[in-house]
Amino acid sequence: MEENDVVKSLAALAQPARLRIFRTLVVAGPLGLTPGALAEALELAGSTLSFHLKELLNAGLVSQQREGRQLIYRAEFARMNALLGFLTQNCCQGADCAVPARSSSCC
Fold it and tell me: What does the alpha-carbon distance between residue 97 and residue 59 come to, in Å, rounded to a whole number?
């Protein structure tokens, strides 16, 4: 992941409503959620939700797919994992860290 992409992703998540939207989509998993379900779950107005989803889409953190008349939004797990990988890539300069070992992928 390029540094500019990391900055774009972190900037998109550096807003409370967008962070809540992204985390809700992570919980939803690969099935994703419709804007209506997101708005209801997060108690956001449709126009507010639309604005924040656009920012997350532009950062590559969520995807949008049309299924019939519905739009489905999903967290982009590959992008999320790449971001986490970038942030921890040189952790402790290669030494054993105090952080417990995890698999290389979150999802």
Answer: 30
pTM (predicted TM-score): 0.85
61 burial via Cβ count (<10 Å: 0-12, 13-18, 19+): buried
Write down the pLDDT at residue 107: 60
Nearest CA among 51, 48, 47, 59 for reference residue 12: 59
**94 or 32: which carries more pLDDT confidence?**
32
| Second-level CATH architecture of 3-85 | Orthogonal Bundle (1.10)
Beta bridge mates, 66 = 71
d(CA 26, CA 32): 8
Rounded-to-integer distance, Cα 2 and Cα 70, Å: 33
Structural domain spans, the chain: 3-85
